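Milestone 3.1: sequence recovery, worked example.
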């Protein structure tokens, strides 16, 4: 769904641990060259199609997503990076 946004080139959405809710939704986003985007704009875009409980609580902008040599997304790596970012915030 987030890939429908014209400024988003790639994204990965995972659940990360949260003390209050058990888990929250986090998104790692690669922004298209020449575009700009902020976390609130991403959440607002998601809310147009999804209920608020399905929108990303954490939005992190990254230069690139990690892939294996065969092109498979390394979701565990994305999740670990988002968890580390959430813990430091």
């Amino acid at each position: 769904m987030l890939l429908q946004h014209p400024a988003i080139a790639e994204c990965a959405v995972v659940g990360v641990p949260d003390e209050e809710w058990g888990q929250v939704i986090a998104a790692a986003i690669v922004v298209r060259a020449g575009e700009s985007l902020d976390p609130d704009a991403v959440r607002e875009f998601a809310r147009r199609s999804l209920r608020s409980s399905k929108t990303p609580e954490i939005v992190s902008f990254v230069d690139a997503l990690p892939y294996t040599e065969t092109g498979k997304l390394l979701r565990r790596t994305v999740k670990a990076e988002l968890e580390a970012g959430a813990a430091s915030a």
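The two ends are 26 Å apart (CA to CA). The helical segments are 39-47, 75-88.
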